[in-house]
Design brief:
CATH topology of the largest domain: Jelly Rolls
Structural class: mainly beta
Oligomer: single chain
Radius of gyration: 19 Å
Low-confidence stretches: none
Strand order of the largest sheet: 3-5-7-12-13-9-10
Distance between the termini: 57 Å
Helix content: 10-25%
CATH class of the largest domain: Mainly Beta
Length: 157
Amino acid sequence: MSSNISQIFANNPVTTIADADLFYVGVTPFDTDDDGACTFATLRAALNATINVNVTGTTQAMLSNRSYTNNAASLCTYTLPATSAVGDIMEITGNGAGGWKIVFGTGQSVDVGSAIGTPTSGSIASQFKNDSIYLKCVVANLKWNTLNAPQGNLTVL
């Protein structure tokens, strides 16, 4: 079977993967009772993998399990997702000249060490273009904590 998979890949290399794409999961020989299939979304969730997003605009609605590279020339305002599960992660890596800012929805907050962003009206912002933050959801839909130390100096309101 390995030669068949290699041949399929050589003839049809995948350059992008959509959440609905199916993956074969099984053992050799093909078509045994142990075989199965799953979507990329299911596989990604099981592996807790992130999807990379290059951001060049001035606004970005955030989604769970995404890694954002901020390449915006002007300030980019990110909005926390309305729906998130405990254990979801997100990160922003600063690179764009304008920096970034995360704003919260109703009842949401982000804790950065002992600093807690004010629910509903609060925000977290980079002070320098290379500042970065890594977040993990600890209360579904509402509360995010920073993992590791944020890189740079952040403004927490």
